[in-house]
Amino acid sequence: MRTRPAPRVLARRAATRPLAAVAVVACLTSLAACGSDEEPTAEDTSAASPATSESASGSPSDDGSAAGSGSCDYPQDGQPAKEVDPPETTPTVSGEVSADVATSAGDIGLTLDADAAPCTVNSFVSLAEQGYFDGTTCHRLTTEGIYVLQCGDPTGTGTGGPGYTIPDELTGEETYPAGTLAMAKTMYPDSGGSQFFMVYEESPLPPDYTVFGTIDDAGLDLLTEIGDEGTDNGTGDGAPATPVDIESVTVG
């Protein structure tokens, strides 16, 4: 996340899902794909925002489903960074769904909220069950303006995605306190993909990023330690100094 609230996960549509902002402050305030040529996407928008650099077209989807519609639309968007099938259009889970992210730095426990974000959770579960996240690295850590670790790009560059986009599932009242799990996206609506970010300290992001779960206390402590170590380049936005490689994501 070279843009504050947007880890690189958000900028896929802009060619990278990481949050990308106009500047470092933008990166820190948007979770788009920063560090890529694309604008912040929920994966890497700016150093202050979680944007993704996934290879999205950079334009909003023609027909993104809203949460609670009973059916989800996942428009094709570029080539997948890792071979994977798109999720079923009808969500396969509901309520609270537990997940465990095993990483080289330690385990991070998640609780996914399939009622609040059915299409997002449906996609995350599908990708996890297909091993999409296995063997990938969390490519972006933001320690100024916003405080997030961004993951979910098999290329490790903030530009990779699953080959489809996810509709935004927003109420307009989203906040991003410590322990929040949310999707990165580009500057365009409905541009999320596979990149997501985990908030380890309250971050003043706009209500543009779908919140689809929470992080357990042990995972939050681990993320805080990773944040305290800073980035490998010594700036407020870059790869974490302590590498965080996802070994597996287990759901249920």
From TrEMBL:
Protein name (database record): Peptidylprolyl isomerase
Comp. bias regions, Low complexity: 43-71
Keyword Isomerase: yes
Taxonomic path: Bacteria, Bacillati, Actinomycetota, Actinomycetes, Propionibacteriales
Signal peptide: 1-35
One Gene Ontology term of the molecular function aspect: peptidyl-prolyl cis-trans isomerase activity
Species whose genome carries this gene: Nocardioides kribbensis
Enzyme Commission numbers on file: 5.2.1.8
Pfam family, any one: Pro_isomerase
Keyword set includes Isomerase: yes
Role: PPIases accelerate the folding of proteins. It catalyzes the cis-trans isomerization of proline imidic peptide bonds in oligopeptides.
Annotated spans, Disordered: 36-96, 226-252
InterPro entries: Cyclophilin-like_dom_sf (IPR029000), Cyclophilin-type_PPIase_dom (IPR002130), Cyclophilin_A-like (IPR044666)
SUPFAM superfamilies registered for this protein in UniProt: Cyclophilin-like (SSF50891)
Keywords associated with the record: Isomerase, Signal
The organism's place on the tree of life at top rank: Bacteria
Ranges where the PPIase cyclophilin-type domain occurs: 103-251
